[in-house]
Amino acid sequence: MSEDIEGHQKRWAIRNPVLVTRGWQASLEECPHFNTMVRRPAGMEEGSGTDACTFCSSDQRVVPSTMCEGSTGAPSADMVVFQNQKENDHVVSLLPNRTGGPYYWIGITKNHLNETWKWIGNNSTWVGNHSWATKEPNNVHINEFCVEIYVNNGPNRGKWNDEKCSNKKFPVCYKGV
C-alpha cells in the first residue's frame, strides 16, 4: 500500500470525488468519479522534491476504518502521509474552507494514550514543529487516537486536532500511480 512514498509517485485523493496527484498531470479519464481539477502551482516543478498536486473536492463523511475504501469495500487508496510542513500546507491550501466541523481525517494515529503518533503506511513519527492546534493534542474526550486537520479561515487553519476515531469526517487519501 505504501510503495515508493519516498519517491513521491503517489496520487492523493479525498474520497468521491476528490483527487490530488503529486508530480503528475491527471486527466479526468484517469479519475472518472472526479469533477474539478487544479493544476500545479507556479514555482513547483515536477521532480523538485515537493511535487505539486491536482485536486477535486468531496462531501462524503466516513469513519477511519472505512476511510479509503472503494465501492466494493476493499481499500482503493491509503491515508495521506505528509513528509514535511510544506506538503501539509500545500494540501490544506487546496481543501475547501469549512466554517465548522467536520473537518478532514489525515493518516496519523496511535493505539494508546502514551503511544507516539505515527503515520499510517510508513510509521514515520514526523509531526512538525507547528502541526498541532493550540493546546492539542489534549485527549479531552478520552481515546482520541485519530487526527483531523482544520480547514477554516481562523488561526488554526492547517493545524491538527486529536479526535475519536468513531467520528465521521472527510478523509484525505492518496493512491499509487
Q: Flag low-confidence runs.
A: 1-59, 71-75
Provide the CATH architecture of the domain at 52-68 and 77-176: Roll
How would you classify the helix and strand content by structural class? Answer: mainly beta
Cα(first) to Cα(last) distance is 12 Å
Please state roughly what percent of the residues sit in beta strands, choosing from under 5%, 5-15%, 15-25%, 25-35%, 35-45% or over 45%: 15-25%
- Total of helices: 1
CATH superfamily of the domain at 52-68 and 77-176: Mannose-Binding Protein A, subunit A
Secondary-structure element sequence? EEEHEEEEEE
Main beta-sheet strand count, sense and barrel state: 5 strands, mixed
The top-level CATH class of the domain at 52-68 and 77-176 is: Alpha Beta
CATH-assigned fold name of the domain at 52-68 and 77-176: Mannose-Binding Protein A, Chain A
Work out the number of β strands.
9
Organism: Oryzias latipes (Japanese rice fish)
Pfam families: Lectin_C
Protein name: C-type lectin domain-containing protein
Domain C-type lectin: 68-174
Concise summary:
It contains one helix and nine strands.
List keywords for this structure.
177 residues; mainly beta; 4-stranded antiparallel sheet; 9 strands; C-type lectin domain-containing protein
How is the secondary structure organized here?
Layout: E1 10-13, E2 20-21, E3 78-79, H1 85-94, E4 104-109, E5 118-119, E6 146-149, E7 160-163, E8 170-171, E9 173-176
Parallel strand pairs: 4-8
Antiparallel strand pairs: 1-2, 1-9, 3-9, 4-5, 4-6, 6-7
Pfam family, one: Lectin_C
InterPro entries: C-type_lectin-like (IPR001304), C-type_lectin-like/link_sf (IPR016186), CTDL_fold (IPR016187)
Protein name: C-type lectin domain-containing protein
